[in-house]
Amino acid sequence: MPKRVMQGVVVSDTNDKTVVVRIERRYTHPLLKKTVRTSKKYHAHDEDNRCKAGDIVRIEETRPLSKTKRWVVLAD
């Protein structure tokens, strides 16, 4: 099974080797037929502390690295 890759914006980089990435999803509401935006935050591993708040990054699914980290930042 392939690993999921998503793109989002870094909202926090205060933790060591960890960034919080906000992923925004758009879909059409089934009843109202309007476009709805929802977002979810993911903790991602950033080995070299390269990402800063506001950066657009891609994250990839990986094995559990800690209690909350299940994603790793891809080096682009």
UniProtKB/TrEMBL annotation:
Keywords: Ribonucleoprotein, Ribosomal protein, RNA-binding, rRNA-binding
Annotated protein name in UniProt: Small ribosomal subunit protein uS17
Keyword Ribosomal protein part of the UniProt annotation: yes
Self-association state and partner proteins as the record states: Part of the 30S ribosomal subunit.
A GO BP entry: translation
Family note: Belongs to the universal ribosomal protein uS17 family.
Keyword check for Transcription: no
Origin species: Lutibaculum baratangense AMV1
Annotated InterPro entries: NA-bd_OB-fold, Ribosomal_uS17, Ribosomal_uS17_bact/chlr, Ribosomal_uS17_CS
SUPFAM superfamilies: Nucleic acid-binding proteins
